[in-house]
Design goal:
With 170 residues, the protein is of the alpha+beta class. The protein is built from 5 helices and 5 strands. 26% of the residues lie in helices and 14% in strands. The protein has a 5-stranded mixed β-sheet. A hairpin with a 5-residue loop joins β1 and β2. The structure holds FE2/S2 (inorganic) cluster. InterPro entries: 2Fe-2S_ferredoxin-like_sf, 2Fe-2S_ferredoxin-type, Adrenodoxin-like, Adrenodoxin_Fe-S_BS, Beta-grasp_dom_sf.
Length: 170
């Protein structure tokens, strides 16, 4: 599907295709393959409507209706969710500010679908409040299997780019 045709469909669904990206090449279910919004050239699956429930830093639950094939980062951006500092590097795997904490069953489901790339693991090591079920929101794309999942935004955010700036200055 051409990007413009996809844009039209997403706009009908109230989503902005320009922001529908996924940083990690080849992630199953992602509409696009990189942060610049370049089409992967793979045939798109038929998207289906799903619900994602976020728990923000204040413990407030936010339910979002979206479609399969978009990353959690894109959902946060497209829905204007007010998670301060979230997604600072726009999905280029450079900041770790898109750190999210998953329910164990969902985390395991994600692991069954795909392995966590070394680059994501490296960035997760720099995330604030890392848990056993942490992932980066820019690397997780929504599939039908994940419908209704709950993801928690950590209490604080840590931007790996700023940490490395400090390290190199000292
Ligand atoms: S948005 Fe920066 S690593 Fe995900």
């Amino acid at each position: 599907m051409a990007v413009s045709a996809l844009s039209s469909r997403l706009l009908l669904l109230g989503l902005n295709a320009a922001r529908v990206t996924c940083a990690h090449l080849g992630r199953p279910g992602c509409v696009f393959s990189n942060a610049r919004g370049v089409s992967s050239g793979r045939a798109l699956r038929t998207e289906e409507r799903v619900t994602v429930r976020f728990i923000d830093r204040d413990g407030k639950r936010i339910s979002v209706n979206t479609i399969t094939g978009v990353s959690l980062l894109n959902i946060v951006v497209d829905q204007n969710l007010d998670f301060e500092g979230f997604g600072a590097c726009e999905g280029t795997l450079a900041c770790s500010t898109c750190h999210l904490i998953f329910e164990e069953k969902i985390y395991n489901k994600l692991l069954n679908e795909t392995t966590v790339a070394d680059e994501e693991m490296d960035m997760l090591d720099l995330a604030y409040g890392l848990t056993d079920t942490s992932r980066l929101g820019c690397q997780v794309c929504v599939t039908k299997d994940l419908d209704g999942m709950v993801v928690r935004v950590p209490e604080a955010v840590s931007d790996a780019r700023k940490t490395s700036d400090k390290d190199s200055a000292s």
